[in-house]
Design brief:
Two copies of one chain form a homodimer. Helices cover 30% and strands 25% of the residues of chain A. With 249 residues, the first copy, chain A, is of the alpha+beta class. Chain A folds into two domains: 13-166, Nucleoside Triphosphate Pyrophosphohydrolase; 168-242, Arc Repressor Mutant, subunit A (Orthogonal Bundle), CATH 1.10.10. Chain A starts with 12 loop residues before the first strand and ends in a 7-residue tail after the last helix. The A-B interface holds A 14-17, 53, 55-59, 80-87, 109, 111, 113, 163, 166-167, 243-249 and B 14-17, 53, 55-59, 80-87, 109, 111, 113, 163, 166-167, 243-249.
Chain lengths: 249, 249
């Protein structure tokens, strides 16, 4: 008689580890965040797109998979914020009843690994699926509450973004190839969540040498056309790696 | 007959989540890191102090508990680096046999949450216990290999430290109350792992207003006594919270 071997299934969800994604979108005016509604029955319950990881996948892969499953957004560069592990992070009553409806082990302790990204909103039209009944861009400053500890995660992501802008350039993937310094200024103001002196900002940006002036102005605008700029790709990417040595905003 | 109720034990180790700590120590010359040897039988196998978390504890608590259990170091301010979750991170042969000797579920997927800290070495004399057969300070630049993915975690911690020094002050807990600018300079060089121009460094530090000159010089030194300085505590702590707005090294 051969010994019975219990074959481990290829894909097994790990009951204790999840990933959550904070996707920021810039609409040329303000920062927005991509949220899903996880419940049709109980009205709107906004949450960050997130779910348990599979035992065989990398955390980064899991984040990309979950984001695609819930919102349709694919191949986005995600950066890890860190792990969130308050033992009570999933014990709100509304969260528990939802977990009981979808999880195999709803009582298991779950720590989550949070990711964030910054994308151009017009390129990413969310398509909800899986347990997401809808997926929407909502202005960050209008969000007051989210499921689980997602509001706390959102605050951490905002803080990380503000910190990042002090040490390396941001914006390459957020602006069109040709842009005005006003658009870049708006982006930095949206991320830092405060007004920035225009002249000071321009002086700093020019000192960083990440943009160069084109021999071209805006066209078809209802105001006096502004000078157009482009990113100095090589220097920009170098600074993305090494960071600023003497700068901050 | 009463229904049998299986009582959940208060303390249960979670098989899937661990914490690991990178404790940097400064000996007034170079950066060191606190490592443990986890095995008596198989020669030296350096590892970062780390272990599984209990289901009921916060990640931060777990990191402090594990650090104390393995090295005797207590109440250290630890900062999270992030989660490390390569599905193969614990599959080296030497790691597997060790795990089989100490873990209830040695085959379980483990993601680890890494922490780091910076302490004054003279204040922390490690006392190994639990499965640590020894605990030692080793110069960071002499480490070539560690258990699991701990070498990768160490590199991430070094990078984080370098990044941090660009955006907020470091050193308050690392230097005596009165110190020379040479000692501070040495600390920044050790963290940034490169020589820094002395005059440039002094200019930047003074511009940051984090130190002030005392009306006092060193005594009992075999060279010309240097001017002593002290940290401007209030301004220092403010910068620790808000970060530099215009600086970097």
């Amino acid at each position: 008689m051969s010994k019975e071997i219990k074959k481990k299934p290829q894909l097994e969800l790990n009951p204790n580890v999840s990933v959550d994604c904070v996707i920021f979108g810039f609409d040329f005016d303000k920062l927005n965040v991509l949220v899903i509604n996880r419940s049709e029955k109980e009205g709107i319950q906004w949450a960050l797109p997130g779910n348990l990881i599979y035992d065989a996948e990398h955390l980064d892969e899991a984040a990309n998979r979950v984001l695609e499953e819930l919102t349709g957004l694919k191949k986005i560069y995600l950066e890890q914020i860190g792990a969130f592990g308050d033992p009570n992070r999933i014990s709100k009553e509304s969260d528990r009843s939802w977990l009981q409806s979808i999880r195999a082990q709803p009582e298991a302790r779950v720590i989550t690994v949070a990711y964030f990204s910054l994308v151009k909103m017009e390129d990413y039209q969310p398509q909800p699926s899986s347990f997401a009944t809808s997926a929407e861009w909502i202005p960050v400053n209008e969000i007051r509450e989210l499921a689980f500890d997602h509001f706390e995660i959102l605050q951490a992501a905002k803080a990380r973004l503000k910190q990042m802008i002090k040490i390396r350039p941001i914006g390459f993937n957020l602006l069109p190839e040709k842009f005005t310094l006003s658009q870049l200024h708006k982006l930095y103001e949206a991320i830092l969540d405060k007004p920035l002196d225009k002249r000071n900002f321009r002086r700093k940006i020019q000192k960083l040498k990440i943009v160069y002036s084109l021999k071209e102005k805006q066209s078809g605008v209802p105001h006096k056309p502004s000078q157009l700029f482009s990113f100095n790709t090589e220097h920009y990417l170098e600074l993305t790696q090494t960071g600023y040595d003497n700068f901050g905003f």
